[in-house]
Amino acid sequence: MDTSTLKERAADISKVADTLSDELAQLHLPEPSFKHGLVGALHSDAPDSNASAARQELLQKLDEYRSLLTDPTLHLTPELASASASRYTCFSVMSSVHSVVRLGIAETFPSQGSTVQDLATRLNLRDGLVRRLLAHCATHHIYYQTKHDFFVHTAASTVLKENEGMRNWILIGAEELIPATLK
User: Fold this and answer.
1) Euclidean distance between CA atoms 137 and 129, whole angstroms
2) 144, 61, 156: which is closest to 101 by C-alpha?
3) pLDDT digits (tens, 9 = 90+) for 62-112
4) Residues 94, 98, 99, CA angle at the centre, nearest 5°?
5) 147 vs 33: CA distance, rounded Å
6) Confidence band, pLDDT 50/70/90 cuts, at residue 3
7) In the chain, pLDDT over 90 holds for what percent of residues?
8) Residue 178, SS3 per DSSP
9) Is 165 helix (H, G, I), strand (E, B) or coil?
């Protein structure tokens, strides 16, 4: 896992923001603002450019910084973490976390980490299913992939493993909220 300090992360964010600003200046484009919005060259459907690459990198670093400063239990419940979380994000995370809990992955996941194959064998599940669930959870900082097919705990996954109340809340919440969300 990345062990950068807050200041090191902030410095990285600042460097990427400077790069984006410089790229926009070279293209004679204004920086994004709440008054004028996002310039066309940075829209998600715009052609690839150094500016769009810097924008994507900046968004990724900002997301990681925000995640680092978020209570681990809120990674499990994005609808509580941010009022601005999209319904898709909430449903997506809830679906994966619910599956990890329902299938016993959360409770069974070893403290020292595990290969996909070992965990799948222990739970009598398909490797591909376990791999997809852990990989998706890892994109939301729930588990962390250290190498191919090997995952370790994060603070959020540790909460799932150690807190039966949280696991039960996830099960009940998902079973009540997922059908309502799909209506």
Assistant:
1) 12
2) 156
3) 888 887 887 777 766 655 445 445 555 566 678 888 899 999 999 999 999
4) 120
5) 39
6) confident
7) 48
8) helix
9) helix
